[in-house]
Amino acid sequence: MSSAVASEATPNARVALVTGGAKGIGAEACRRLAAAGFGVVVADLDLPEAESTAAAIVAAGGRAQAIPLDVGDPAGVQSAFAELDAREGRCDVLVNCAGIAKVFPFVDFPLENFVDTMRVNVTGTFLCSQHAARLMIRHRWGRIVNIASVAGMRAVGTGRTAYGTSKGAVIALTRQMAVELAEHGVTVNAICPGPVDTPMTRVLHTEKFRQEYRKAIPMDRYGTTGEMAAAVMYLVSDDAGYLTGVELPVDGGFLASGARGI
Question: What are all long-range contacts of 148-156, with beta carbons under 8 Å and residues at least 24 apart?
């Protein structure tokens, strides 16, 4: 496995792979998983950023390695999990955080971007989950957490034809995987973040959109990567062993809210 940094493995220590692990929610999930004792694989298309995240984890006393990964490339995903199997012999936790998004009006939405968004957000989740599940089944224990979105549960603004559709598909995929993998001791759940302050939203969300979004959230603010990662940590815990097939909104009350004020 191509690895920038690593520390000594603990025999039989659980291993977690996080796609899109270099930045944002993925990076915070990597840090918390490492602090909980998991060996962490920081998988990202941006290898230098993944190496930086892994190096910081190791400096803090955790175990981490960085690998380049395009989740929408079947051969690349197969190779990454084959190397993980050879090196660690297991994958206990998979967090599917890799995702892309662009905004265009529906009538002008480019087919190329629609297809590419599905390739990364949906096919990438499918491919990584399939390979991870095969390793989890060996040990009769596993946790798959998909990072979906409230945009997969209701339309959020305009221009998000591909992103919202892809996240709705991730939620449906979560349910299907949960049903099929339950007998093997593997749970599959999704968290559905509301707006979170990440590098991606800083590019996509205009100030006007931010103001309107905050008005629709009873807590009147964007969420943090830490709050999303905390939900991930619950779902991968032994305490969540009877929870599967769930889409969990972490959204400050956005989905629960309608008209506000008196």
Answer: 148/174, 148/190, 148/191, 148/192, 148/193, 148/247, 149/192, 149/193, 150/192, 150/193, 150/194, 150/249, 150/251, 150/254, 150/255, 152/192, 152/247, 153/192, 153/247, 153/249, 153/255, 154/255, 156/213
- One-character DSSP codes across 119-187: IIIIIHHHHHHHHHHHHHHHHT-EEEEEE--GGGTS--SSS-HHHHHHHHHHHHHHHHHHHHHGGGTEE
Q: Give dist(CA 39, CA 3) in Å, integer.
A: 13
Average pLDDT of the residues in 136-145: 97
Task: Give the pLDDT confidence score for residue 207 in this predicted structure.
Answer: 76
Helix, strand and coil content of the chain, in percent to the nearest 5, comes to: 50, 15, 35
pLDDT digit string, tens, across residues 80-91: 999 999 999 999
Catalytic residue status for 163: yes
pTM here is 0.92
* Residue 109: band (very low, low, confident or very high) from pLDDT cuts 50, 70, 90: very high
Tell me the residue type at 86. A
Of the candidates 163, 213, 234, 242, the residue annotated as catalytic is 163
Query: Among all chains, which residue has been given the structure tokens 């769930």?
Result: 246
- Assess whether pLDDT exceeds 50 at residue 124: yes
